[in-house]
Amino acid sequence: MTSNDPKQPQKRDVVLGGQAAMPKAGVVLGGLEGVQRRISDRNQDIEYRIAALQEALNYGQRGLDLLIRSLKDKSEQIQWSAYELLRDRSEPRVKLALELFSNSGVVYMPLRDLLAAGKWRQADLETTAIMRQLCKLDVGDRLNGMHFTQFPCEDLGLIDRLWRKYSNGHFGFSVQQPIWHRCDQSRWDKGEAWALFGDRVGWRASFFLFEAYHWKQYRELTFNLSAPKGHLPFVSGIFTMEAIANRLISCRTNS
Predict the structure, then answer these.
(1) How high is the mean pLDDT of the chain?
(2) What is the pLDDT of residue 15?
(3) C or N: which end of the chain has fewer Cβ atoms within 10 Å?
(4) Given its phi and psi angles, is residue 31 left (phi above 0), alpha (psi -120 to 50 degrees) or beta?
(5) pTM here?
(6) Angstrom distances, CA of residue 3 to CA of 31, 59, 76, 100
(7) Binning pLDDT at 50, 70 and 90, where does residue 21 land?
């Protein structure tokens, strides 16, 4: 006999379904309340929490609300799992939530689509455009290190996650950051540290048969995954790289 009590496990719940990950220990509530608890239980395996996210879709509008809230979960895997479940839905409030995934109001769907399609050059230009927008630059103004001292941490993290996700960890600010700090710590002279970083990520090139180097122009960059690790995003290159790396660390420290 089926129970009508919403707090009792139902057939569609993980506890009775037998198709998803099970909890490490303890009794699991059924219904939407149980789904919510399973999503928020950080002591459980991530697969178990993601299974509960998928189950939330069985609960109509309240389940959608739960998925939307999960976009702000502290776990990046939960954030992205909720995002993937919501990305193709047509409800206006879902679209709004995805567009406002960052409190800045920047729409990140175009950047995500470019990265997902492997259009690295267009994605880099879109990244620069987003950063210019967030820094409130006028037409013709160039991004420089000073613009990143108060750059929104939420947006910096989101841009970085998008690049890392769709490049399988090959590109991204948090990929460049440890490379830069190793270079900076190994050289007394800042110019030498910049040059070493440029060599590591492929922003500098040597002339064949000559002991001379030059910084690549934008058109000379490699916009595919054969590029060295950390080659992209370029943004304004060496003029912003150090400031972005430092801001990334500052955001993590203060989060």
Answers:
(1) 85
(2) 37
(3) N
(4) left
(5) 0.66
(6) 11, 17, 36, 39
(7) low
Here the tokens at position 101 are 């995934």
Q: Which residue has the tokens 């290190």?
A: 145
pLDDT tens figures, 56-88: 999 999 999 999 999 878 787 888 889 889 988
> What is each CA distance from 110 to 115, 154, 162, 166, 167, in whole angstroms?
9, 18, 11, 13, 16
Q: Which two tokens stand for residue 191?
A: 């110019």
Q: How confident is the model at residue 99 (pLDDT cuts 50, 70, 90)?
A: low
In the predicted model, what is the mean pLDDT of residues 145-162? 92
Buried b (16+ CB within 10 A) or exposed e, 190-204: eeebbbbbbebbbbb
From the list 235, 230, 225, 237, the residue with the least C-alpha distance to 118 is: 225
